[in-house]
Specification:
609 residues, Rossmann fold, 2 domains, ten-stranded mixed β-sheet, 18 helices, 30% helix
Length: 609
């Protein structure tokens, strides 16, 4: 008769030899995956929502080669992506590539999402070595038990792809990936999977512009699944869209969903049960092997995605203008943003000039300082040319943007006197109609000329404490303004990168707005015709990249027009990102509190160190 110890030994051996339980990826995630307290507001067992379960199962289905997801924020897509990587690491160890738009994105998802998840999930704790990025910042690698590996790459350095192959390719935020001189990173990455007959290619992204969105194009090639929820009254399923919500203007708490079939009002308290009863339906079932999903934040169960919260965000975005509305459409509704306007005529803008402005009156040797009463802040954009500096002043109110003036400081940019004159302008304060004084809150000085770059750095080293910073414009999808992480030996000031395409698009779609509309541009009559010719010096066009064949939106110069006025306006708008506007407090200050004037000694000391 075998002893109890021997029985336990054989039991343990049998358990170790037992084949793993056959689970779909949604079942595996619900049973094993854990959310870390360092990356989730609700740490602990992962309980995927119904729409997440459908996406997870498609990501793990061996009969589906491609998965394309149009996603919005606050739908838990990133968690689903990490859970999928974990499921592959345990159930099917293989070479995996995770492609992210930038180095920062790659580093962020590795350190903030992957490492905590593998550390806090018992089923994954010993599967992958957890560690930081190496010193190259563009590549990180995790070795998986069973012969698998995970490589996290940046789309900005597609040359890294040449050294790797993968059975599973995951691409996140593909609409934010730029085509580089190396080629289209997405196509290059897909080529690294061709040696695997059972490869898996998963892409997901919040959509961007209608004409250039990659994820929209991929979704259109798929079986185009939509998530339908049943009405609690008539039980007819429908895809919940923004147009189904109704509320009283200015009262987000009154929002309800109107069933598109029976017309009955549905309160948000029924959302959890409707989502749990919902199902994915393929609208192009004839397509095989390519599952496509689209989802928006309206079905999210997060507290910050409640219908009243989303309505409140919508009303704020509508008041803020087209730029904020694009963000709402992309990140909340998961929809592309259509910009039909590609050019505005300068004569239309010139005819809209109003009686305000800031300019130096040479005859009287004093400032003309006709500032609209609702202007609370002023920012400046400075373009640097070898023989002059050009400055545009932009006034900001709650609802409008005022082009207050366009000044030209003539003189070689190599001379200190030219920069002294610029500094005097940027430190000037003017009388405000409310009784106080107003100066320049922040400014951006272009360092991209190449010949004057060091001059700009030297100047901005002394002014960046006043939020006058060195900038450089860059094309492609990127934030309006972000400090550069690249270190340069000869740089004496922090360099900020301006996403010029985003700002130019904002300008283009806002210029036709009537002066009474939210975030419209209003123009002072101190502006010359030449300024308007320069402001409209570029046309928005759709072109196809010769290397990738991918459509791209570019701004093309019209003829031989100068564009300094446009560039200065772009930089002045970007300078807003350096500020934190508090209109109520500022208006109160302008009614009585003057801005402290720096003494001459302080000014000289600040300028010359």
């Amino acid at each position: 008769m075998r002893s109890e110890a021997v029985q336990r030994l054989f039991g343990a051996i049998a358990k170790g030899l037992r084949p793993p339980e056959t689970l779909s990826y949604s079942q595996w995630a619900a049973k094993h995956f854990r959310l870390s307290a360092t990356s989730s507001a609700a740490p602990g067992r992962f309980r995927p929502w119904k729409f997440q379960r459908g996406i997870l199962d498609a990501m793990g289905d061996p009969l589906i080669e491609r998965v394309s997801v149009i996603k919005s924020a606050r739908t838990g897509y990133t968690v689903s992506l990490i859970a999928t990587i974990g499921a592959y690491a345990v159930n099917d160890p293989c070479p995996i590539i995770l492609l992210m738009p930038t180095d920062d994105d790659a580093r962020g998802i590795a350190v903030d999402e992957l490492d905590p998840a593998f550390r806090d999930t018992p089923a994954l704790r010993d599967v992958m070595r957890v560690g930081r990025f190496d010193g190259r910042n563009t590549l990180t690698q995790r070795m998986l038990l069973g012969g698998g590996s995970l490589k996290i790459l940046s789309a900005l350095a597609p040359r890294n792809l040449r050294r790797h192959t993968a059975k599973v390719l995951l691409c996140d935020e593909v609409d934010g990936m730029k085509v580089t001189s190396e080629g289209d990173p997405i196509k290059l990455a897909e080529k690294r999977t061709t040696s695997f007959a059972d490869r898996k290619i998963i892409i997901g992204s919040t959509p961007t512009d209608e004409a250039t969105s990659i994820v929209i194009k991929r979704y259109e090639e798929s079986d185009k699944r939509i998530f339908e929820i049943p009405c609690v009254h008539c039980e007819t399923p429908f895809e919940l869209l923004w147009e189904h919500l109704d509320w009283k203007a200015g009262q987000p708490e009154t929002v309800v969903c109107i069933c598109p079939h029976c017309g009955t009002e549905i309160e948000e308290r029924f959302k959890p049960q409707m989502v749990e009863a919902g199902e994915w339906r393929a609208t192009a079932p004839q397509v095989k092997g390519h599952a496509g999903f689209r989802l928006n934040a309206l079905i999210s169960q997060f507290a910050n995605a409640s219908w009243p919260k989303l309505v409140e965000e919508f009303e704020k975005a509508r008041k803020a203008g087209p730029s904020d509305m694009q963000v709402f459409y992309n990140t909340v509704l998961g929809k592309v943003w259509s910009t039909a306007i590609n050019y505005v005529n300068e004569n239309q803008l010139l005819a809209r000039c109003e009686n305000f402005g800031i300019e130096w009156d040479h005859n009287k040797s004093e400032w003309r300082q006709d500032i609209p009463e609702d202007v609370a802040y002023i920012t400046a954009g400075v373009d640097v040319q070898p023989d002059r500096l050009e400055v545009v002043l932009i006034g900001w109110s709650r609802n409008h943007r005022y082009i207050l003036g366009h000044m030209i400081i003539r003189g070689s940019a190599l001379l200190q006197t030219t920069w002294d004159e610029l500094d005097a302008l940027l430190m000037t304060v003017w009388k405000h109609p409310l009784g106080g004084e107003i100066g320049i809150e922040a400014g951006c000085v272009d360092s991209g000329d190449g010949n004057m770059t060091q001059r700009v750095y030297d100047y901005c080293e002394k002014t960046q404490g006043r939020k006058i910073v060195a900038i450089k414009g860059d094309d492609g999808p990127r934030p309006v303004l972000k400090a550069s992480a690249t270190k340069r030996r000869n740089r004496t000031a922090t360099l900020y990168i301006v996403g010029v395409e985003q700002v130019k698009t904002d300008i283009l779609v806002s210029l036709p707005l009537e002066p009474s509309e939210a975030q419209s541009f209003r123009f002072g009559n101190s502006l010359t015709e030449d300024y308007f010719v320069q402001l409209t010096a570029e046309r928005r066009e759709l072109k196809y990249n010769k290397q990738s064949g991918r459509p791209e939106i570019v701004f093309v110069r019209i003829g031989k027009r100068k564009a300094e006025g446009l560039d200065c306006t772009v930089y002045g708008i970007a300078a807003k990102q350096l500020c934190r506007f508090d209109f109520d407090t500022r208006y109160a200050d302008l009614r009585g509190k003057p801005i402290p004037r720096p003494s001459l000694r302080d000014s000289v000391k600040r300028l010359h160190g």
